[in-house]
Every structure is written in structure tokens, then in C-alpha cells.
Task: structure prediction
Amino acid sequence: MRDLYIKNTLTRKKELFKPLNAPLVGMYVCGPTVYGDAHLGHARPGIVFDVMRRYLSYSGYKVRFVRNITDVGHLVGDGDQGEDKIQKKAKLEKLEPMEVVQHYTLRYHQNMDALNCLPPSIEPCASGHITEQIQMIEKILQAGYAYEVNGSVYFDVPKYNTHHHYGKLSGRKIEDLLEQTRSLEGGDEKRHPTDFALWKKAAKEHLMHWPSPWSEGFPGWHLECSVMSTKYLGEHFDIHGGGMDLLFPHHECEIAQSVGASGKEPVKYWVHNNMITINGQKMGKSLGNFITLDELFEGNHKLLEQAYSPMTIRFFILGAHYSSTLDFSNEALLAAQKGFERLVNGYSVLQNLKASENSSVEIKPILDKCFAALDDDFNTPICIAELFGLVKIIQNASRNNAQLSLADLKLLKHNFDVILFEILGLELPKDSKDKSASNQDDLMQLIIELRKNAKENKDYATSDLIRDKLSELSIQLKDSRDGTTWEKT
Result:
């Protein structure tokens, strides 16, 4: 296993990654609330945690990657009052709430597929785990950290804080939170303004509700992730990821609920990606300043000068460290498009390079820097910068300004493939792949024909030379009565 360091939001430090039960790794990432199309802000956690998962798998770990779908309980404003976001959308479009859920879940999957994000190992829905959520509430009540009022159940933050530390993830203090807390309608049910809902009694107009020991109602948004993460990864697991906007109150409440129910810290490493901004303001549906992924792919938004491919978007996101803010602009996307095209061109040139007897440049130290960057808290921009250094060597070798031995050429080809495709999850443009495969087939048929002519002219030395040189390039020829075929070995 590699020495991999991860910035832990909980400790504010980079820590050596030591899984609880190596080589198994449990990883939970907060998924979308499916009431609208995915936008650029959703793409960032999708891609960031996809690369983390890919690199952990490459490093020899067996990763169980759980990403949820929130389909109930997330209220407008992210608090305990207001209308359910999905219900609001359903009323606007005169649909059943689960029709909205189904429609936008499928569209989210299509967008993630386009961005080449691997599907999660498990993708639980909040509405499918109501029983488990009721059970966790009962445990929290038994522990004395919750109370019931008029059919709703609230988490008792001040009481929890007497035995534990509410605010340790976000660094916030209850005293400061009191000054920031708004007076909300219905908030007088709570004993303390910082308390939050575990279960809400449903009003008559509320469409999604279930029976419980306290009322016909629905679960609190924060509770859902505590339940789904611990159900599939255990009461204490390795990595919990999500956007920085979820750090408080969502993730802070998750910790409190899980500790309140089990007495155990739920997560060893908390990891948060930063926001994508437009003109310095967070991109989000609630702010109305978002650009959907489909709009980006098609170029039909007033802020876009052209369409951008899914791989350009992926490359744009990987061009900044996940913990830094990433500001959207057409200039930035155009730069990402050119950068990605440069990598693709370098990869294409690499496939046709011929080996020399010796190398005039050192490949391994640059490759080592690529992996060292990834070991250092998944630093994709540094890794990509080193890849551009390799592209420069490739271009120089193609112009005979540099030499690569067969061993270095094989090392470069293998690792360029691994980093570009297996770890960073980039893909060649489809027309590039089709053209490359077609050109390769045409070239091989030409070589096979030349070898056939040499054999027919009894020029066995040339025939054998062609076969041997192809073998050095890991291409094997197979002769049969039906002709000659080839395959990569």
C-alpha cells in the first residue's frame, strides 16, 4: 500500500490514511436531492470523489462507495420549516413526488455517466429506510438526547453538548450560533434554537408521510445520511465526503446523531470539496445562478459562448485542488478544453513512438512526481502539470529531439494510460478513439500484406524481421490457413 495523506476536516490536518479494516475502505458521499437537473456544482463532488475512489482502488484497497439519493425530508431553506423541495416541484409540475424523484434521478445518472463517474457500490434512497430512521430516533431518545413535542422529535443540542462537542467539525460554538439563529415560524416547539428535527409531524397538505410512534410524518434531512451511512458501512467507517456547504449544519448534525445513538464517532476522515462560484458567488439552485450540465454540454445558456464536452468539464474540475474554490468562466473552460486536447494529442503521438537504444531523458522521476502528487491529498492539478511535462518529452521524441529506450517507452505508455484513464477517469473523444482504432487496423493490415508478399517472394528474413519487430511492440501475429490476424499482448 502507498503512503497516502488526506486532509481531515475534523482535525484540520493532513493525516496518513490508515483504514479501519485494511484493505477494506468504507466511503460515504452525500448525493443529490433530486428535484431538478444536475448543475456544475453537482459535477464537482461527483468527479472529486470518483477520483478519490479510483485512486484508492488503484492503490490496492477494496472500496465500498455509498452515495445516497435524497428523495424526502429536505426542506426549502435546508432547515426544519418550509415545504419539501421535491413536493414543491411536484405541485408545480402537477406530478406525484416520486415521479419527480424518478425523472431527476435518471437524469443525474445520465450526467454522471457522461462525466465518466463510476456508479456507486450502493445507492440508497432516504424513503427506502424509514424503518431504520425510526429505530435510530428511538435510540437517541433512549440516550436522552432528543425529545418529542406535538408529534415531532427534536435533537437536544445543549444537552448533547454537555457530554460531547457539538461544533467540533465546523468549529462553531453554540453561543455564536444563538446570535446567528433566525426566529422561525413553528420554532417555539424547540427547547433551544439550535435543536434540529429528527422527525416532523406532517401537515395536512404534506404529500409524503409515514406512520411512526410519534405521528404521521417524515424524517429530518440530517438523520437520513446518518442512517444510510451506518447501515451500509457500520457505526464507524473510514471516509465521509461532501461539499463544503454541507459541513454545517448537515454533517455536524450527522456526527451528533450518530454519537447520540451509538456512543461512537461515526467517521475517521471527513473530506470536503470546495464550491464552484460564478463571479465569486456560490453556484446553486436556491440562488438561481446555476448552469445545468446539459446546458454546458449543449452550449445553450446565456453565460456560455459555446458547448463544452463532458471531458472538458471533468478536466476543468480536476485542474484545481478539490479543497480550493473554483470560479466558472468561459475563459477557464476554454483553457481546460485546450489543455485536455493537448493531453489527448500527446497520448496519440505516444502510441506511434519508436524506441531507441538508449534514453536521453529520465521518465521514472516524472512519473514518481505524478503519483506523489496524488498521494498528497489527491493533488490532481500537480499531477496534471507533471503529465504536461511528459507530453513535452513525447513531442520532442516524435521530432527526434529526445530518445526513449524500449523499457522507458513501455513504462511511459503503461503509466500514461493508468493515470489518464484509470485514475483521473478521462476518456478519449469518441471520434478520436474511432479514428485511432481505424487507423491502427488499416496500418496493421498494410504490415500483414507486406509480410505476406515477402513470404511469397521467399524473403523470409524480411518476414521474420516484421514479426520480431511487432513482437517488441507487444503485437503478436497469428498465421492460419485463413490468413494472418494480430492481437496486443
